[in-house]
Amino acid sequence: MSGSEVEELVEGKRVLVLCGAGGVGKTTTSAALALAGARAGKRVLVLTIDPARRLAQALGIPDHAEEPTPVPAERLQAAGVDGSGTLDAWMLDPRVVFEGLVRKLSSPDKAEVILDSRLYRHLTDLIAGMQEYTAAEALYSFAHEGRYDLIVLDTPPSRSALDFLEAPGRLGRFLEDGVVQLFLPKEGGLLRRAGRFLSQIFARVFGESFVEELQVFLSAFSGMFTALRAHTRGVRELLQSKDAAFLLVTSTDEEAVDEALYFQEKLIERALPFAGFVLNRSYAALERCRHPEELPPLSTAEERAAMAKLGRLADRERSQAREDRRLLDKLKALAGRGFAVAAPHLGEAVEDLPGLLRLARGMAD
Predict the structure, then answer these.
(1) What is the C-alpha end-to-end distance of the chain, expressed in Å?
(2) 53-56, long-range: CB within 8 Å, 24+ apart, which pairs?
(3) I need a labelling partner for 14 at 20 to 30 A (CA). Which of 183, 250, 290, 301 fits?
């Protein structure tokens, strides 16, 4: 790869966030860019939400892993990745991420109180967007640990990915919510009386044991509030920094394109670094192939009939390629200071490392 916009992102950024509608090949594109980073000699981590099973097997991602899994060096070498680059992969598990956060930000005693509570086990239901928050938290934690030169994050489909952008702020607002604060220990005053009154109401409805458990849980959890607020600011600052870039993946499907354009607007509204579009599953990058009519004449009627059918298929493919190139030109115009590239059309779903590397090379050409 040499000098393309995609190559510059892989070589110059610490964080790449890929967003797009479902079914556009976003996870595959994320894995391909991560593999390109490893080929460039970087220590790379790809964080994914729900990879296809065969792709997960190609990357060596086990089910319910509690930490990133290295892709074996021999498998990388067989795919054409030589040198010092490494690639780790992890399918995000919100339970593992948040448990690690609790242990990191709490004393051992308080961490056990929190993790043993029934309320903790239902925390993802109490706070909307907890899965997306833990994705942001995992990205932030790995970025600050310094273990990786490049982290590639595959987000949920676009409208859900907005939760990924908003989750840090939503968690901060939850922690500062007045109702939550009423259940925390107070030293006299109106808030203490209001909290006692509210606790009595909850006790009548849910029972005193529930209220006591809630107060113990929030009392232990409150020690994390300041640190969690700092983390939410850190996530936001990381995503808005020059070290990060957002790529929007789309197919030629009209709804997928609309999703990408909608998400571009939201990125700009939030002052997040939009880098460009990746047009996937199109013929826009198709190199010119010889038409069957350009081949030497055939002798038999059956051969000529078969070649005529191939000619009609070639005509449709060329027509589709022209339409796809017009869409690519439209995306380039709408990208502003960003870019738009077409990933090569590789036919069937890419489910192995050599295929991922071909996809990455095609985007960089």
Answers:
(1) 7
(2) 54/349, 54/351, 54/352, 55/27, 55/28, 55/31, 55/349, 55/350, 55/351, 56/91
(3) 250
Cα dihedral 23, 25, 31, 32, rounded to 10, equals 180
Tokens of 307: 């070649």
Parallel, antiparallel or unpaired: strands 86-91 and 69-70:
antiparallel
Where are the domains positioned within the chain? 5-281
How does pLDDT run across 110-148, given as a tens digit for each residue? 888 878 877 776 665 555 456 666 777 788 889 988 999
For the domain with range 5-281, which CATH number is right: 3.40.50.620, 3.40.50.20, 3.40.50.300, 3.40.50.150? 3.40.50.300
Give the residue from 146, 142, 150 showing the smallest Cα distance to 38.
150
Q: CB-based burial of residue 361 (10 Å sphere; 0-12 exposed, 13-18 middle, 19+ buried)?
A: middle
CA atoms within 13 A of residue 14's CA, in its CB half-sphere: 17
β-sheet bridge partners, residue 246: 17, 274
- The Cα 4–Cα 336 span in angstroms is 17
Q: Is the pTM of this model over 0.85?
A: no
Q: What is the pLDDT of residue 147?
A: 93
Quick: pLDDT tens for 298-309.
778 787 777 777
Distance CA(115)–CA(347), nearest Å, equals 47
pLDDT of residue 194: 41
Instruction: Give the tokens for residue 364.
Output: 């960089």
